[in-house]
Protein backbone atom coordinates (compact mmCIF):
# COMPACT_ATOMS: atom_id res chain seq x y z
CA UNK A 1 0.00 0.00 0.00
CA UNK A 2 1.47 3.39 -1.04
CA UNK A 3 1.24 6.61 1.02
CA UNK A 4 -1.86 7.88 -0.80
CA UNK A 5 -3.68 4.56 -0.35
CA UNK A 6 -2.71 4.50 3.32
CA UNK A 7 -4.05 8.05 3.86
CA UNK A 8 -7.32 7.20 2.09
CA UNK A 9 -7.71 4.08 4.19
CA UNK A 10 -7.28 6.07 7.41
CA UNK A 11 -9.89 8.57 6.26
CA UNK A 12 -12.32 5.81 5.26
CA UNK A 13 -12.01 4.09 8.62
CA UNK A 14 -12.35 7.30 10.58
CA UNK A 15 -15.55 8.12 8.70
CA UNK A 16 -16.94 4.66 9.39
CA UNK A 17 -17.89 3.89 5.77
CA UNK A 18 -17.27 0.93 3.51
CA UNK A 19 -14.52 0.81 0.90
CA UNK A 20 -16.95 0.71 -2.05
CA UNK A 21 -18.85 3.75 -0.82
CA UNK A 22 -15.62 5.63 -0.06
CA UNK A 23 -14.30 4.98 -3.57
CA UNK A 24 -17.60 6.06 -5.13
CA UNK A 25 -17.46 9.29 -3.12
CA UNK A 26 -13.92 9.99 -4.28
CA UNK A 27 -14.99 9.32 -7.88
CA UNK A 28 -17.82 11.81 -7.51
CA UNK A 29 -15.41 14.41 -6.14
CA UNK A 30 -13.00 13.92 -9.00
CA UNK A 31 -15.82 14.30 -11.53
CA UNK A 32 -16.10 17.99 -10.61
CA UNK A 33 -19.02 20.34 -10.89
CA UNK A 34 -22.34 19.99 -12.69
CA UNK A 35 -22.50 22.12 -15.83
CA UNK A 36 -24.60 25.24 -15.40
CA UNK A 37 -27.64 25.21 -17.72
CA UNK A 38 -28.94 28.64 -16.73
CA UNK A 39 -26.66 30.92 -14.77
CA UNK A 40 -23.31 29.88 -16.21
CA UNK A 41 -20.47 28.39 -14.20
CA UNK A 42 -16.97 27.12 -14.60
CA UNK A 43 -16.56 23.42 -13.71
CA UNK A 44 -14.59 22.71 -10.55
CA UNK A 45 -12.33 19.65 -10.55
CA UNK A 46 -11.35 18.05 -7.30
CA UNK A 47 -7.88 16.73 -8.06
CA UNK A 48 -5.38 19.19 -6.62
CA UNK A 49 -2.58 19.64 -9.13
CA UNK A 50 0.59 21.66 -8.74
CA UNK A 51 0.22 25.28 -9.81
CA UNK A 52 2.55 28.20 -10.26
CA UNK A 53 2.75 30.70 -7.42
CA UNK A 54 1.33 33.54 -9.52
CA UNK A 55 -0.69 34.12 -12.68
CA UNK A 56 -2.73 31.60 -14.63
CA UNK A 57 -3.25 28.34 -12.78
CA UNK A 58 -2.62 29.97 -9.41
CA UNK A 59 -4.56 28.52 -6.50
CA UNK A 60 -7.37 30.97 -5.77
CA UNK A 61 -7.58 30.01 -2.09
CA UNK A 62 -4.18 29.61 -0.40
CA UNK A 63 -3.78 26.52 1.77
CA UNK A 64 -3.76 28.48 5.03
CA UNK A 65 -7.04 30.22 4.09
CA UNK A 66 -9.10 27.07 3.51
CA UNK A 67 -11.71 26.87 6.24
CA UNK A 68 -15.07 25.44 7.23
CA UNK A 69 -17.84 26.65 9.50
CA UNK A 70 -18.58 23.97 12.06
CA UNK A 71 -22.32 24.35 11.46
CA UNK A 72 -21.72 22.11 8.44
CA UNK A 73 -20.74 19.23 10.75
CA UNK A 74 -22.93 20.14 13.73
CA UNK A 75 -24.26 16.58 13.95
CA UNK A 76 -20.71 15.31 14.45
CA UNK A 77 -19.83 17.79 17.22
CA UNK A 78 -23.18 17.01 18.84
CA UNK A 79 -22.84 13.23 18.58
CA UNK A 80 -22.50 10.99 21.65
CA UNK A 81 -19.01 9.47 21.51
CA UNK A 82 -20.20 6.56 23.66
CA UNK A 83 -22.67 5.44 21.00
CA UNK A 84 -20.57 5.47 17.82
CA UNK A 85 -17.11 4.99 16.35
CA UNK A 86 -17.58 8.08 14.17
CA UNK A 87 -15.78 11.32 15.10
CA UNK A 88 -17.77 12.96 17.90
CA UNK A 89 -17.32 16.24 19.76
CA UNK A 90 -15.02 19.11 18.96
CA UNK A 91 -11.70 17.37 19.49
CA UNK A 92 -12.43 14.41 17.21
CA UNK A 93 -13.96 16.67 14.58
CA UNK A 94 -10.94 18.99 14.63
CA UNK A 95 -8.69 16.01 14.09
CA UNK A 96 -10.77 14.82 11.13
CA UNK A 97 -10.99 18.24 9.50
CA UNK A 98 -7.21 18.66 9.81
CA UNK A 99 -6.76 15.28 8.10
CA UNK A 100 -8.84 16.55 5.19
CA UNK A 101 -6.51 19.55 4.91
CA UNK A 102 -8.51 22.37 6.52
CA UNK A 103 -6.48 24.99 8.36
CA UNK A 104 -9.25 27.29 9.60
CA UNK A 105 -12.59 26.86 11.34
CA UNK A 106 -15.46 29.17 12.12
CA UNK A 107 -17.55 28.32 15.16
CA UNK A 108 -21.33 28.33 15.29
CA UNK A 109 -21.50 28.36 19.07
CA UNK A 110 -19.57 26.30 21.60
CA UNK A 111 -21.97 23.48 22.44
CA UNK A 112 -21.25 19.78 21.92
CA UNK A 113 -22.43 16.46 23.35
CA UNK A 114 -22.15 16.20 27.12
CA UNK A 115 -20.13 12.97 26.85
CA UNK A 116 -17.47 14.53 24.64
CA UNK A 117 -14.21 15.71 26.23
CA UNK A 118 -14.82 19.00 28.03
CA UNK A 119 -18.55 18.45 28.47
CA UNK A 120 -21.58 20.01 26.84
CA UNK A 121 -20.91 23.72 27.21
CA UNK A 122 -17.53 25.21 26.35
CA UNK A 123 -18.82 28.79 26.29
CA UNK A 124 -16.51 29.95 29.06
CA UNK A 125 -12.93 31.03 29.62
CA UNK A 126 -12.01 27.51 30.71
CA UNK A 127 -13.82 25.98 27.76
CA UNK A 128 -12.10 28.36 25.35
CA UNK A 129 -8.69 27.38 26.69
CA UNK A 130 -9.52 23.73 26.13
CA UNK A 131 -10.76 24.40 22.60
CA UNK A 132 -7.63 26.41 21.86
CA UNK A 133 -5.42 23.53 23.00
CA UNK A 134 -7.18 21.20 20.54
CA UNK A 135 -7.00 23.73 17.71
CA UNK A 136 -3.27 24.09 18.30
CA UNK A 137 -2.86 20.32 18.54
CA UNK A 138 -4.27 19.82 15.05
CA UNK A 139 -2.84 22.91 13.39
CA UNK A 140 -6.16 24.74 13.08
CA UNK A 141 -6.93 28.41 13.55
CA UNK A 142 -10.27 29.79 14.72
CA UNK A 143 -11.22 32.67 12.43
CA UNK A 144 -14.68 33.64 13.70
CA UNK A 145 -17.85 32.63 15.50
CA UNK A 146 -21.57 33.02 14.94
CA UNK A 147 -22.16 33.93 18.54
CA UNK A 148 -23.81 36.45 20.80
CA UNK A 149 -24.86 39.80 19.37
CA UNK A 150 -27.30 41.59 21.71
CA UNK A 151 -30.81 41.88 20.36
CA UNK A 152 -31.77 44.76 22.63
CA UNK A 153 -31.04 48.42 21.97
CA UNK A 154 -29.98 50.37 23.95
CA UNK A 155 -27.78 47.67 25.46
CA UNK A 156 -28.64 46.24 28.85
CA UNK A 157 -25.86 45.70 31.37
CA UNK A 158 -26.46 41.93 31.19
CA UNK A 159 -26.13 41.92 27.40
CA UNK A 160 -23.01 44.03 27.58
CA UNK A 161 -21.42 41.62 30.07
CA UNK A 162 -22.25 38.64 27.86
CA UNK A 163 -20.92 40.38 24.76
CA UNK A 164 -17.65 41.15 26.54
CA UNK A 165 -17.39 37.53 27.69
CA UNK A 166 -17.65 36.42 24.07
CA UNK A 167 -14.92 38.85 23.11
CA UNK A 168 -12.69 37.35 25.80
CA UNK A 169 -13.43 33.87 24.46
CA UNK A 170 -12.61 35.05 20.93
CA UNK A 171 -9.26 36.37 22.09
CA UNK A 172 -8.40 33.11 23.87
CA UNK A 173 -9.27 31.19 20.71
CA UNK A 174 -7.05 33.50 18.67
CA UNK A 175 -9.83 34.86 16.45
CA UNK A 176 -9.46 38.02 14.43
CA UNK A 177 -13.23 38.24 13.98
CA UNK A 178 -16.43 37.70 15.93
CA UNK A 179 -19.94 37.99 14.58
CA UNK A 180 -23.39 36.62 14.07
CA UNK A 181 -25.28 34.42 11.64
CA UNK A 182 -28.05 37.02 11.29
CA UNK A 183 -28.62 40.20 9.31
CA UNK A 184 -28.36 43.53 11.20
CA UNK A 185 -32.16 43.78 10.91
CA UNK A 186 -34.88 41.96 9.02
CA UNK A 187 -36.64 45.21 8.16
CA UNK A 188 -37.09 46.68 4.69
CA UNK A 189 -37.24 50.26 6.01
CA UNK A 190 -34.46 52.85 6.09
CA UNK A 191 -35.27 54.01 9.64
CA UNK A 192 -34.71 50.51 11.03
CA UNK A 193 -31.38 50.17 9.24
CA UNK A 194 -30.34 53.52 10.76
CA UNK A 195 -31.07 52.13 14.23
CA UNK A 196 -29.17 48.94 13.40
CA UNK A 197 -26.17 51.02 12.32
CA UNK A 198 -26.17 52.87 15.66
CA UNK A 199 -26.20 49.58 17.55
CA UNK A 200 -23.46 48.00 15.45
CA UNK A 201 -21.26 51.08 15.77
CA UNK A 202 -21.50 50.84 19.56
CA UNK A 203 -20.72 47.12 19.53
CA UNK A 204 -17.99 47.57 16.93
CA UNK A 205 -16.21 50.12 19.11
CA UNK A 206 -16.26 47.73 22.09
CA UNK A 207 -14.91 44.95 19.87
CA UNK A 208 -12.21 47.25 18.45
CA UNK A 209 -10.92 48.00 21.95
CA UNK A 210 -10.73 44.23 22.52
CA UNK A 211 -8.76 43.79 19.30
CA UNK A 212 -11.58 41.97 17.45
CA UNK A 213 -13.28 42.83 14.15
CA UNK A 214 -17.07 42.60 14.46
CA UNK A 215 -18.91 41.12 11.46
CA UNK A 216 -22.45 40.45 10.34
CA UNK A 217 -23.37 37.46 8.20
CA UNK A 218 -26.00 37.99 5.53
CA UNK A 219 -28.74 36.01 3.85
CA UNK A 220 -30.70 36.74 0.69
CA UNK A 221 -33.17 39.16 2.32
CA UNK A 222 -30.42 41.67 3.14
CA UNK A 223 -29.79 42.11 -0.59
CA UNK A 224 -33.41 42.99 -1.30
CA UNK A 225 -34.37 46.58 -2.06
CA UNK A 226 -34.71 49.22 0.64
CA UNK A 227 -38.16 50.82 0.88
CA UNK A 228 -37.28 54.50 1.12
CA UNK A 229 -39.87 56.56 -0.77
CA UNK A 230 -43.09 56.76 -2.75
CA UNK A 231 -46.60 56.73 -1.29
CA UNK A 232 -46.82 55.83 2.40
CA UNK A 233 -48.82 52.89 3.68
CA UNK A 234 -51.44 53.05 6.46
CA UNK A 235 -48.68 52.97 9.07
CA UNK A 236 -46.84 55.86 7.44
CA UNK A 237 -44.09 53.71 5.96
CA UNK A 238 -42.61 54.04 2.44
CA UNK A 239 -43.74 51.53 -0.17
CA UNK A 240 -41.27 52.04 -3.02
CA UNK A 241 -37.53 51.97 -3.56
CA UNK A 242 -34.78 54.18 -4.91
CA UNK A 243 -33.08 50.97 -6.07
CA UNK A 244 -30.46 50.77 -3.33
CA UNK A 245 -30.23 47.39 -1.63
CA UNK A 246 -30.60 47.16 2.14
CA UNK A 247 -27.07 45.97 2.79
CA UNK A 248 -25.60 48.49 0.37
CA UNK A 249 -27.27 51.20 2.43
CA UNK A 250 -25.87 49.68 5.63
CA UNK A 251 -22.38 49.69 4.12
CA UNK A 252 -22.75 53.34 3.12
CA UNK A 253 -23.67 54.55 6.62
CA UNK A 254 -21.31 52.43 8.74
CA UNK A 255 -17.67 52.92 9.66
CA UNK A 256 -15.37 50.51 7.77
CA UNK A 257 -13.02 50.59 10.75
CA UNK A 258 -15.70 49.24 13.09
CA UNK A 259 -17.98 46.93 11.11
CA UNK A 260 -17.13 44.08 8.71
CA UNK A 261 -19.23 41.59 6.78
CA UNK A 262 -19.30 37.93 5.85
CA UNK A 263 -20.91 37.25 2.50
CA UNK A 264 -22.67 33.91 2.16
CA UNK A 265 -22.04 33.57 -1.55
CA UNK A 266 -24.86 31.06 -2.03
CA UNK A 267 -27.48 33.33 -0.46
CA UNK A 268 -26.12 36.27 -2.44
CA UNK A 269 -26.82 34.30 -5.62
CA UNK A 270 -30.28 33.45 -4.34
CA UNK A 271 -30.79 37.21 -3.95
CA UNK A 272 -29.59 37.67 -7.52
CA UNK A 273 -32.35 35.30 -8.62
CA UNK A 274 -35.10 36.73 -6.38
CA UNK A 275 -34.48 40.49 -6.26
CA UNK A 276 -33.85 41.76 -9.78
CA UNK A 277 -36.69 44.28 -10.14
CA UNK A 278 -38.10 46.99 -7.90
CA UNK A 279 -40.86 49.57 -7.96
CA UNK A 280 -39.30 53.01 -8.24
CA UNK A 281 -40.62 56.09 -6.42
CA UNK A 282 -42.57 57.10 -9.54
CA UNK A 283 -44.29 53.69 -9.73
CA UNK A 284 -42.30 52.34 -12.67
CA UNK A 285 -40.73 48.89 -12.61
CA UNK A 286 -36.95 48.99 -12.82
CA UNK A 287 -34.55 46.12 -13.40
CA UNK A 288 -31.37 45.91 -11.37
CA UNK A 289 -29.61 42.54 -11.38
CA UNK A 290 -27.47 41.97 -8.28
CA UNK A 291 -23.78 41.27 -8.80
CA UNK A 292 -22.38 39.66 -5.61
CA UNK A 293 -18.73 39.86 -6.68
CA UNK A 294 -19.25 43.45 -7.77
CA UNK A 295 -20.43 44.43 -4.30
CA UNK A 296 -17.33 42.84 -2.76
CA UNK A 297 -15.12 44.58 -5.33
CA UNK A 298 -16.55 47.95 -4.27
CA UNK A 299 -16.08 47.21 -0.55
CA UNK A 300 -13.31 44.62 -0.72
CA UNK A 301 -11.59 45.00 2.63
CA UNK A 302 -14.95 44.96 4.44
CA UNK A 303 -15.42 41.29 3.54
CA UNK A 304 -12.74 39.34 5.43
CA UNK A 305 -14.95 36.24 5.58
CA UNK A 306 -17.02 34.29 3.06
CA UNK A 307 -19.27 31.28 3.26
CA UNK A 308 -18.41 29.10 0.29
CA UNK A 309 -21.65 27.24 -0.34
CA UNK A 310 -22.84 25.73 -3.61
CA UNK A 311 -26.12 25.00 -5.36
CA UNK A 312 -27.71 23.47 -8.43
CA UNK A 313 -30.42 25.27 -10.38
CA UNK A 314 -34.01 24.80 -9.23
CA UNK A 315 -36.50 27.33 -10.60
CA UNK A 316 -39.46 25.74 -8.78
CA UNK A 317 -38.57 26.41 -5.12
CA UNK A 318 -38.63 30.22 -5.15
CA UNK A 319 -34.90 30.50 -4.46
CA UNK A 320 -33.37 29.43 -7.75
CA UNK A 321 -31.06 26.82 -6.23
CA UNK A 322 -30.89 23.66 -4.15
CA UNK A 323 -27.91 23.33 -1.80
CA UNK A 324 -25.25 20.72 -2.66
CA UNK A 325 -21.69 19.96 -1.49
CA UNK A 326 -19.25 22.72 -2.35
CA UNK A 327 -17.81 22.37 -5.84
CA UNK A 328 -20.56 20.09 -7.16
CA UNK A 329 -22.95 22.89 -8.08
CA UNK A 330 -23.15 25.67 -10.65
CA UNK A 331 -22.05 28.80 -8.76
CA UNK A 332 -19.00 30.12 -10.57
CA UNK A 333 -16.44 30.30 -7.78
CA UNK A 334 -13.50 30.51 -10.17
CA UNK A 335 -14.77 33.81 -11.51
CA UNK A 336 -15.95 35.05 -8.10
CA UNK A 337 -12.61 34.56 -6.34
CA UNK A 338 -10.71 35.84 -9.38
CA UNK A 339 -12.72 39.06 -9.34
CA UNK A 340 -12.57 39.90 -5.63
CA UNK A 341 -8.79 39.63 -5.38
CA UNK A 342 -6.88 40.02 -2.12
CA UNK A 343 -6.40 36.24 -1.96
CA UNK A 344 -4.32 36.53 1.21
CA UNK A 345 -6.98 38.61 2.95
CA UNK A 346 -10.28 36.76 2.46
CA UNK A 347 -11.12 33.63 4.47
CA UNK A 348 -13.59 31.34 2.67
CA UNK A 349 -15.45 28.91 4.96
CA UNK A 350 -17.02 25.88 3.32
CA UNK A 351 -20.64 25.58 4.43
CA UNK A 352 -23.50 23.23 3.62
CA UNK A 353 -26.61 23.71 5.73
CA UNK A 354 -28.07 20.34 4.73
CA UNK A 355 -24.90 18.25 5.09
CA UNK A 356 -26.12 16.36 8.21
CA UNK A 357 -28.36 13.40 7.40
CA UNK A 358 -30.82 11.55 9.63
CA UNK A 359 -30.10 8.31 7.76
CA UNK A 360 -26.37 8.66 7.03
CA UNK A 361 -24.38 9.65 10.14
CA UNK A 362 -21.13 10.03 8.21
CA UNK A 363 -22.51 12.27 5.48
CA UNK A 364 -21.63 15.69 6.87
CA UNK A 365 -17.95 14.81 7.24
CA UNK A 366 -17.93 13.19 3.80
CA UNK A 367 -19.35 16.38 2.34
CA UNK A 368 -16.83 18.44 4.31
CA UNK A 369 -14.10 16.37 2.65
CA UNK A 370 -15.61 16.95 -0.80
CA UNK A 371 -15.81 20.66 -0.02
CA UNK A 372 -12.15 20.85 0.94
CA UNK A 373 -11.00 19.01 -2.18
CA UNK A 374 -12.98 21.35 -4.42
CA UNK A 375 -11.93 24.51 -2.57
CA UNK A 376 -8.30 23.48 -2.91
CA UNK A 377 -8.79 22.75 -6.61
CA UNK A 378 -9.90 26.27 -7.58
CA UNK A 379 -7.40 27.79 -9.99
CA UNK A 380 -7.13 31.15 -11.71
CA UNK A 381 -8.18 30.79 -15.35
TrEMBL record:
Leader peptide range in chain numbering: 1-46
Pfam families: AP_endonuc_2
Entry-linked Gene3D superfamilies: Divalent-metal-dependent TIM barrel enzymes (3.20.20.150)
Molecular function in Gene Ontology: isomerase activity
SUPFAM superfamilies cross-referenced by the UniProt entry: Xylose isomerase-like
Taxonomic superkingdom: Bacteria
UniProt entry keywords in alphabetical sequence: Isomerase, Signal
InterPro entries: IolE/XylAMocC-like, TAT_signal, Xyl_isomerase-like_sf, Xyl_isomerase-like_TIM-brl
Ranges of residues in domain Xylose isomerase-like TIM barrel: 94-350
Name of the protein described by the UniProt record: Sugar phosphate isomerase
Organism of provenance: Streptomyces brasiliensis
Amino acid sequence: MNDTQHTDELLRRSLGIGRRRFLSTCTAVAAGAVAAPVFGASPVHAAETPAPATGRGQSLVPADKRGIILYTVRDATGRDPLSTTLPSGFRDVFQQLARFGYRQVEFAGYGQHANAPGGANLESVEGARLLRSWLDEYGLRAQGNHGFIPGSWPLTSADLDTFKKHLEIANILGMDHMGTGNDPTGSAYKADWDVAADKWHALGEIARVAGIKLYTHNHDAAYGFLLDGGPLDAQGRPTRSSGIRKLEYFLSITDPKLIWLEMDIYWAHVAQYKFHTHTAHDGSTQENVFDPAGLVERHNKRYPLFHAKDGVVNTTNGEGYDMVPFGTGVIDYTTFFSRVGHRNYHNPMVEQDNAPSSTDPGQSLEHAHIGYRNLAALRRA
